[in-house]
Design brief:
- The chain is of the alpha/beta class and 290 residues long.
- The chain folds into 2 domains: 136 residues; 114 residues, 3-Layer(aba) Sandwich (Rossmann fold), CATH 3.40.50.
- It has 10 helices and 8 strands.
- A 4-stranded mixed β-sheet has the order 5-6-7-8, sandwiched between helices.
- The N and C termini lie far apart (53 Å).
Length: 290
């Protein structure tokens, strides 16, 4: 562990995140280039040499980045003697390596593939398990990791092949990913107040952070849940144990835009310790249920 103490996690995090983002960007280019050629067959016979060369270049660059990211994950897992996690990662990577075809997430233009999702998940777990200084955990960095997971809610739901019908069916799969990154994740949290006991969906004591999910199946439910958020703002305030709060609204359709929500939150003076995340994906309540 002496070598690990000299390791610069901050530099590792920034470089890895940059290269992972680049890999996703190249994957998107490869995917949409294929789609373009598929729906424009005339281009298959004109200028194809350049197009093929470009696609081959992108594919080679993508493969190079995947292998590079793989080695970076292996290096850190070995450095910190995380042998069980290392063995799992190698095994899962080997099983997926031939299956790195791109997929388009429903209702978005986001492109992903199983092998990049695997690397991304292990990256989140690694950087949340270790810190720059054992005596001074980097809460800011870990908070960014949590936020990345929450912002990936739609991708998680898609990966799990779920069409949620309730808030719980959204929260449960996300919690599994959060628990893999934050071992101290707790689900039974209560914030008692004189007239009501507030219960977030889960919390992370090491980050002093609570997370609350909302589920909306139409525009009216969005308005209703926004009203509940304003109530939660006052209910969660003043806690000594919990100082940061995330609200994630999962919509089963694009009922409102993030810009619309941000403008509304400005009007109610949304606390700076609160972060609102808007996502949408498949699903819908059973008829007759609200």
């Amino acid at each position: 562990m002496q070598n690990a103490s000299m390791f610069n996690l901050e530099s590792y995090y920034k470089n890895f995140d940059k290269e992972l983002s680049l890999a996703f960007s190249i994957l998107s280019d490869i995917y949409f280039n294929d789609i373009y050629r598929e729906f424009n067959p005339a281009n298959m016979n004109s200028g194809t040499l350049h197009a093929k060369e470009e696609q081959e270049y992108l594919t080679q660059k993508f493969d190079y980045l995947v292998d590079k990211l793989y080695l970076k994950v292996v290096f850190v897992l070995e450095l910190y003697n995380l042998n069980e996690m290392l063995n799992c990662f190698k095994s899962e990577f080997k099983a997926l390596k031939p299956k790195n075809d791109a997929e388009r997430l429903p209702l978005t233009d986001d492109i992903t593939c199983p092998i990049l999702d695997l690397i991304s998940n292990y990256f989140s777990a690694i950087t949340s398990s270790i810190c720059y200084d054992d005596n001074k955990p980097n809460v800011y960095l870990k908070g960014e990791i949590l936020e990345t997971i929450l912002e990936s809610t739609s991708k998680i739901i898609y990966s799990e092949k779920i069409e949620p019908k309730s808030e719980k069916q959204v929260v449960d799969p996300v919690v599994k990913y959060v628990e893999s990154a934050f071992a101290d994740t707790v689900k039974d949290v209560r914030l008692p107040k004189p007239t009501k006991c507030y219960k977030p969906d889960f919390a992370i004591p090491s980050l002093q952070t609570c997370v609350e999910y909302k589920f909306a199946d139409n525009s009216e439910e969005v308005k209703k849940e926004m009203g509940q958020i304003y109530t939660d703002l006052h209910g969660y305030s003043g806690s000594k144990d919990w100082t940061f709060f995330y609200v994630v609204m999962y919509m089963t359709g694009p009922y409102v835009t993030e810009k619309q929500v941000k403008e509304e939150l400005k009007m109610v003076k949304f606390d700076e310790n609160w972060k609102f995340i808007l996502v949408h994906g498949p699903g819908g309540r059973d008829k007759g249920k609200k």
